[in-house]
Amino acid sequence: MAEHFNISEVNVLDAFLKYIISIYSKYFSISKIYGIFKSAGYKISKNKLLEFLYDSEEVFFMFYLKIYSRSENKKLSYRKKIYVIDSGIINSLKNEMSIPRLMENIVFWT
Asked: Are residues 106 and 99 in contact, defined by beta-carbon separation less than 8 angstroms?
Protein backbone atom coordinates (compact mmCIF):
# COMPACT_ATOMS: atom_id res chain seq x y z
CA MET A 1 0.00 0.00 0.00
CA ALA A 2 2.85 2.39 0.83
CA GLU A 3 4.44 1.87 -2.58
CA HIS A 4 1.15 2.02 -4.46
CA PHE A 5 0.22 5.41 -3.00
CA ASN A 6 3.80 6.74 -2.61
CA ILE A 7 3.47 7.04 1.16
CA SER A 8 6.68 8.16 2.82
CA GLU A 9 5.43 7.87 6.42
CA VAL A 10 5.56 4.06 6.43
CA ASN A 11 5.94 3.76 10.21
CA VAL A 12 2.83 5.90 10.76
CA LEU A 13 0.91 3.92 8.14
CA ASP A 14 1.89 0.68 9.86
CA ALA A 15 0.71 2.00 13.23
CA PHE A 16 -2.51 3.31 11.63
CA LEU A 17 -3.35 -0.06 10.06
CA LYS A 18 -2.64 -1.89 13.31
CA TYR A 19 -4.86 0.57 15.15
CA ILE A 20 -7.65 0.05 12.59
CA ILE A 21 -7.40 -3.70 13.17
CA SER A 22 -7.62 -3.16 16.93
CA ILE A 23 -10.90 -1.23 16.61
CA TYR A 24 -12.65 -3.43 14.04
CA SER A 25 -16.46 -3.52 14.42
CA LYS A 26 -16.34 -0.38 16.58
CA TYR A 27 -17.22 3.25 16.06
CA PHE A 28 -14.34 5.58 15.27
CA SER A 29 -13.53 9.15 14.37
CA ILE A 30 -10.47 10.57 12.69
CA SER A 31 -10.26 13.23 15.41
CA LYS A 32 -9.94 10.56 18.09
CA ILE A 33 -7.34 8.63 16.06
CA TYR A 34 -5.46 11.89 15.50
CA GLY A 35 -5.44 12.58 19.25
CA ILE A 36 -4.12 9.09 19.99
CA PHE A 37 -1.36 9.39 17.41
CA LYS A 38 -0.44 12.90 18.53
CA SER A 39 -0.17 11.82 22.17
CA ALA A 40 1.96 8.83 21.07
CA GLY A 41 4.42 11.27 19.48
CA TYR A 42 3.62 10.73 15.81
CA LYS A 43 3.91 13.88 13.70
CA ILE A 44 1.00 13.49 11.29
CA SER A 45 -1.92 15.67 10.22
CA LYS A 46 -5.61 14.79 10.27
CA ASN A 47 -5.67 15.13 6.49
CA LYS A 48 -2.90 12.54 6.15
CA LEU A 49 -4.80 10.15 8.42
CA LEU A 50 -7.87 10.68 6.24
CA GLU A 51 -5.75 9.84 3.19
CA PHE A 52 -4.63 6.63 4.93
CA LEU A 53 -8.27 5.80 5.63
CA TYR A 54 -9.35 6.36 2.03
CA ASP A 55 -6.31 4.52 0.66
CA SER A 56 -6.88 1.50 2.90
CA GLU A 57 -10.48 1.34 1.71
CA GLU A 58 -9.35 1.63 -1.90
CA VAL A 59 -7.03 -1.40 -1.56
CA PHE A 60 -9.85 -3.37 0.11
CA PHE A 61 -8.17 -3.56 3.53
CA MET A 62 -11.19 -2.23 5.40
CA PHE A 63 -14.51 -0.51 4.91
CA TYR A 64 -16.34 1.98 7.07
CA LEU A 65 -20.07 2.36 7.34
CA LYS A 66 -22.11 5.45 8.14
CA ILE A 67 -25.12 5.27 10.42
CA TYR A 68 -28.42 4.68 8.64
CA SER A 69 -30.63 7.74 8.72
CA ARG A 70 -32.77 9.70 6.32
CA SER A 71 -31.20 12.86 7.68
CA GLU A 72 -27.98 13.86 5.94
CA ASN A 73 -27.00 15.89 9.00
CA LYS A 74 -27.12 12.77 11.19
CA LYS A 75 -25.13 10.77 8.63
CA LEU A 76 -22.41 13.40 8.65
CA SER A 77 -22.34 14.06 12.39
CA TYR A 78 -22.40 10.49 13.74
CA ARG A 79 -19.24 8.41 13.98
CA LYS A 80 -18.66 5.64 11.47
CA LYS A 81 -18.13 1.95 12.16
CA ILE A 82 -15.12 0.17 10.76
CA TYR A 83 -14.92 -3.37 9.36
CA VAL A 84 -11.76 -5.20 8.31
CA ILE A 85 -12.27 -7.16 5.11
CA ASP A 86 -10.06 -10.16 5.94
CA SER A 87 -10.84 -11.63 9.35
CA GLY A 88 -7.63 -13.68 9.08
CA ILE A 89 -5.66 -10.45 9.53
CA ILE A 90 -7.62 -9.80 12.73
CA ASN A 91 -6.87 -13.29 14.01
CA SER A 92 -3.16 -13.04 13.25
CA LEU A 93 -2.56 -9.61 14.80
CA LYS A 94 -4.92 -9.51 17.77
CA ASN A 95 -3.86 -11.11 21.06
CA GLU A 96 -7.34 -11.35 22.54
CA MET A 97 -10.40 -12.42 20.60
CA SER A 98 -13.86 -10.87 20.85
CA ILE A 99 -16.25 -13.42 19.37
CA PRO A 100 -19.22 -10.98 19.14
CA ARG A 101 -17.12 -8.35 17.33
CA LEU A 102 -15.57 -10.96 15.05
CA MET A 103 -19.01 -12.37 14.21
CA GLU A 104 -20.32 -8.87 13.47
CA ASN A 105 -17.34 -8.26 11.20
CA ILE A 106 -17.90 -11.59 9.38
CA VAL A 107 -21.68 -11.13 9.07
CA PHE A 108 -21.16 -7.65 7.63
CA TRP A 109 -19.21 -9.19 4.74
CA THR A 110 -21.63 -12.05 3.97
From this structure: no
